[in-house]
């Protein structure tokens, strides 16, 4: 309790874990394994070193890192100093890094050596530190976190005046990413919501594949560390390596985004069967739509261990589908977890009954304080909109029909591109697919499908249209089909709409 009062739920969590679990393995990355005690002492040493150079309350630390110990060192140390924490997307271009750092007032930048060419262009920061060197052709000009930790005092640092705010950037699939700020990190409430549906247990191991700078990776890492479970992670995602690490570490949990799950399944059942995954109890997917096709494939291969988390950066966790939910309704996102309210509202903010489609609104702990650029988004009777529309079935399971800004009206009919993309994902010759709305002279709007063929498969635009025509309504058939080698996706797996080919194709 003293640690939590001194450093808040984020900074205090690592100290609590050290007190409770001590020498139990806390983190396994490419550099080896650290105990919970070592994680706590490392963050103490770094926090004391930073406080000595006035990185404390009022400062903001930007972190441009992949998944490894240095990222966690920086997060925990910044929290213990009271500095704000900004998690930067490693896929940003130099201009985006500069823009976000300037907008968020970043004075200290922590980065991996591979991003030296990005970090050195940010001229608004006063100090930089290298979190991971590795094998790189870059020669970073700044001190490393490891050198500060080696020289620092491991005694608990002086508590800050105020607990650290955390800023997680939205995905920014259609525009510039916003900073979602949380002044109070109600981690226990959010963890309790997840644990009410997903049976993570203390003393196990979980592979966390999504980047920690996204909500799902951050949530899964914090939750498992708090439980005293070993977090296993790597800087880059590789499907075979994930299976090998899970087998060697006897992982009970696997956390990933749908595109990662798809890449593992694409290895084939024979390859997957070579790895000992007998201890696997949980596959938690989130960050992007799972889809019924992928849910069925995963359940067929791994059994009833799949959970689907639906939420947003701003609104936290809205619903979780259990294996039983996904068996009954593979396209659902489940039911609200403990402490969460979900309501569907019409255009006049009236609550809709089961079966009716409306805008999804959430009331839950762990929601963001507001955007760093100003505003909190419109709320209705304390409920926050997710930006999605959906419906409840008769059993109370929630279905996300699509984004309210992606819905198109084609020949007078409401059409959600996501439903068509999910259908195309089940075609045996389709490796990946995305569908968007485009202007159309005849129908006002129409659908355009972007399709990645499976290697060695023949597939024409007419094949795609006929496949949809025999399974969905006439107005859901794409008017145009574009074949591409790959789909541009952000780290969470969502399609980067603005980078899809434009124009009449």
Automatic annotation (TrEMBL):
Superkingdom: Bacteria
Keywords of the record: Ligase
Pfam hit, one: AMP-binding_C
Record has Ligase as a keyword: yes
SUPFAM superfamilies the UniProt entry points to: Acetyl-CoA synthetase-like (SSF56801)
PROSITE patterns documented for this protein: AMP_BINDING (PS00455)
Domain (AMP-binding enzyme C-terminal) ranges: 419-494
Gene3D superfamilies attached to this UniProt entry: 3.30.300.30, N-terminal domain of ligase-like (3.40.50.12780)
Keyword Ligase: yes
Domain annotation AMP-dependent synthetase/ligase: ranges: 17-371
Protein family according to the UniProt entry: Belongs to the ATP-dependent AMP-binding enzyme family.
The protein's name: AMP-binding protein
Organism: Streptomyces humicola
């Amino acid at each position: 309790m003293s640690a939590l009062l001194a450093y808040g739920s984020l900074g205090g969590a690592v100290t609590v874990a050290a007190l409770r679990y001590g020498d139990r393995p806390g983190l396994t990355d490419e550099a080896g394994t650290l105990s919970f005690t070592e994680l706590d002492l490392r963050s103490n040493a770094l926090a004391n070193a930073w406080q000595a150079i006035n990185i404390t309350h009022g400062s903001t630390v930007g972190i441009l890192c992949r998944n490894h110990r240095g990222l966690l060192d920086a997060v925990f140390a910044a929290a213990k100093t009271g500095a704000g924490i900004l998690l930067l997307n490693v896929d940003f271009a130099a201009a985006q890094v500069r823009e976000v750092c300037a907008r968020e007032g970043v004075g200290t930048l922590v980065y991996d050596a591979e991003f030296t060419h990005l970090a050195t262009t940010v001229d608004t920061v006063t100090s930089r530190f290298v979190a991971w060197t590795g094998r790189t052709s870059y020669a970073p000009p700044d001190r490393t976190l490891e050198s500060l930790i080696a020289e620092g005092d491991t005694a608990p640092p002086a508590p800050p005046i105020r607990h650290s705010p955390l800023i997680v950037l939205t995905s920014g699939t259609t525009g510039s990413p916003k900073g979602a700020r949380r002044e109070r990190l109600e981690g226990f409430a959010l963890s309790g919501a997840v644990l009410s549906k997903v049976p993570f247990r203390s003393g196990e191991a979980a592979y966390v594949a999504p980047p920690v700078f996204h909500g799902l990776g951050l949530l899964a890492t914090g939750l498992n560390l708090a439980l005293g479970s070993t977090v296993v992670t790597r800087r880059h995602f590789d499907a075979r390596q994930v299976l090998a690490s899970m087998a060697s570490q006897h992982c009970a949990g696997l956390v990933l985004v749908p595109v990662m799950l798809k890449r593992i399944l694409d290895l084939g059942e024979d390859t997957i069967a070579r790895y000992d995954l007998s201890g696997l109890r949980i596959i938690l997917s989130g960050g992007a739509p799972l889809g019924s096709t992928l849910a069925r494939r995963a359940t067929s291969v791994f059994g009833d261990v799949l959970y689907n988390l639906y939420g947003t950066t701003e609104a936290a966790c809205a619903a979780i589908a259990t294996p039983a939910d996904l068996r009954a309704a593979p396209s659902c996102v489940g039911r609200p977890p403990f402490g969460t309210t979900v309501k569907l509202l019409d255009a006049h903010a009236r609550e809709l009954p089961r079966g009716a489609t409306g805008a999804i609104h959430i009331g839950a702990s762990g929601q963001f304080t507001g955007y760093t650029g100003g505003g909190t988004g419109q709320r209705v009777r304390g409920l926050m909109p997710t930006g999605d529309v959906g419906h409840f079935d008769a059993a109370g399971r929630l279905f996300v029909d699509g984004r309210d800004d992606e819905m198109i009206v084609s020949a007078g009919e409401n059409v959600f591109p996501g439903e068509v993309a999910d259908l195309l994902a089940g075609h045996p010759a389709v490796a990946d697919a995305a569908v968007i709305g485009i202007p159309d002279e005849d129908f006002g709007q129409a659908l355009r499908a972007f399709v990645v063929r499976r290697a060695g498969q023949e597939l024409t635009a007419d094949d795609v249209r006929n496949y949809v025509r025999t399974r969905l309504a006439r107005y859901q058939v794409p008017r145009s089909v574009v074949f591409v080698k790959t789909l541009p996706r952000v780290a969470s797996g969502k399609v980067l709409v603005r980078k899809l080919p434009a124009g009449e194709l």
